[in-house]
What does this fold into?
Amino acid sequence: MTAFDLDFFVIGGGSGGVRAARTAAALGARTALAEERYLGGTCVNVGCVPKKLFSYAAHYARDFQDARGYGWQTDANPGFDWPTLMQRKNAEIGRLNGIYGNLLRNAGVRVIEARARVVDAHTVEVGGEVLRCREILIATGGWPSAPDVPGSNLALNSNDVFALPRLPASIVIVGGGYIAVEFAGIFAGLGVKTTLVHRGATLLRGFDSEVVVHFQNELRQYAELRLESQVKALRRAGEHTLVTLPDGAEIAAEQVLFATGRMPNTAGLGLEEAGVQLAANGAVLVDKRFTTSVPSIHAVGDVIDRVALTPVALAEGQILAHRLFGTPAREMSYDNVPTAVFCHPEIATVGLSEEQARAGGRAIKVFRSRFTPLRHTLSGRAEKAFLKLVVDAESDKVLGAHMLGEGAAEIIQGLAIALTMGATKADFDRTLGIHPSTAEEFVTLRTPS
It folds into this structure.
């Protein structure tokens, strides 16, 4: 122990790094954490939290409209003030940054607000110090990527949006994943003319295709969707940016957002020089114990490019810390990881899609329901909910649950417990529903289709 200055040094103050550092310190390890930007990482600062706040803001316009169907005499054009939203959002993020710092320090973790670099298997350089460390954790997350096209510097990335000084009148969003479709709903909901451009034939690769088809129909009600269309170039023309498409057509918008994914944030950390193997995209290669090719260097979270979700990073960090400094906990399982896309309307899912279940060679039964939620029978909004269960035909085990509609994340979180416990369709069938609710549809589906 005396050969090292620290038992555990964490590079990166996001979800995985903070959880690992706090857990290690609680287990008695001498721990330090370095963060050069902001505590809380992507999720707190430029991801989950501010994005969900923006999504709430965008929903109010729809709520004002829907209220008229219930007798409310609302202003036909309620006002919205972008600076107020930004100010309130910034205050909340600042509060969370402080909470993260206090959690670490109260746990006995030394927090260093500087960039750290790995020197060798047991040495880091940070803020002018050179520290010898028994174990090192890389938890530096990801960073937005952008297509390499002429004029790409004219576009925002998903980090920039959260510091946008003025709400544009029009925007072109490039991408087809979580970030792209979420911001399409946000900007359209705030009154911005929105166009979504994606190179693929469908949005949200990896999600159940039937859910995606229904979502695309809903999205077209509030935004223009251009699929199978890549951006060739951007150029400035007065107050607008012109987006050139493969057929030569141009779309003019006040802002362009590249929401084309995030890459592992490993550049300049000294990892390859220290012997750590990286994937072609910069992701840190780890085994199932989250250890790299160098036995004393580990990695968790988005930087390993497995499942880029905050709860996954939290679990990975905690499991690693227990293995290194306590009693080894469970192994990480990536089965039945629930996830939600906070688009309009929401998508949430857990388990296998229909395509994944069929690809595994299973005989399956599929139960589905598409309907107008009770709320919109009076609001008049032409919005449909869609629910789907994928069931193993032989064992009756529910393999996947999928939902498009209001409250999808809250409903699927509960179903994730059921799937994790191995619930069967018979278990769903003997469960009483809450009436009237959307959630009850999941326990009243009777006829496979």
Notes: The chain has a mean pLDDT of 96. The CA atoms of residues 26 and 90 lie 31 Å apart. The longest strand covers residues 129-138. Residues 82-106 form the longest helix (25 residues).
